[in-house]
Fold these 3 entries.
Entry 1:
Amino acid sequence: MKTKKNNILRDPVCMRRMNKNKAYAKIKFENGIYYLCCPRCQAEFMQDPKKYVERYKEINV
């Protein structure tokens, strides 16, 4: 059974904390899945995904 804590992540673009089940977008890139909170963050992510993947790794250790 998953706990609520496992569902809380940060958007790699705006750093907003959110429940991954309520994310606006879920994007598969390379070997990971990234959750974004809104259309603006999705567009930013798609412009330079590698930049945000590195940020994601740093904040979701």
Entry 2:
Amino acid sequence: MNKYLQTPEHILDLHGMTCRESKTAIFRLLSDHRYSHVRIITGKGTFREKSGTLREFVKTILKDNGIDFRPSKLSDGGEGALEVFL
């Protein structure tokens, strides 16, 4: 089954959060065990940043915890969102 055809069961929007706040929100979501597909919206970062700090921070958390994720389709946020499969 194509994972991109699935609709996420939950969307976590991290806009405006610090890395510390986003880490707390992500671990709260992961410990909930209610969802198998979540979209995490990180944003793309600011013009001054080469790459979004929050986006890279979230990717690192997911990688370090062995969690499967992919960038969202352009229509769902593209590089500013991640499709996470738990």
Entry 3:
Amino acid sequence: MALIAQALATFLNFYFVLLIVRILLSWFPTIEWYKQPFAALSQVTDPYLNIFRSFIPPLGGIDFSPILAIFVLQIASSLFMQAAQAIAYTMY
């Protein structure tokens, strides 16, 4: 069980990096999101970001939803990491 929690925490950390890359690339308006590798990055990250975009609309042309998305992702990652450590601690 600790291995599963650790794997999920690692996956969420990797997904965090993908989100950061996606957010940073959104600052460049000349990127063509329908071409590879940008299309793959968009297909992986946009469904998660769209969840938060439905709650927080852009204000003044600035999209603040990635801040909440990153915050939730980091909380989930932290919880899985703590669970993995707690399970590993109780096993010994």
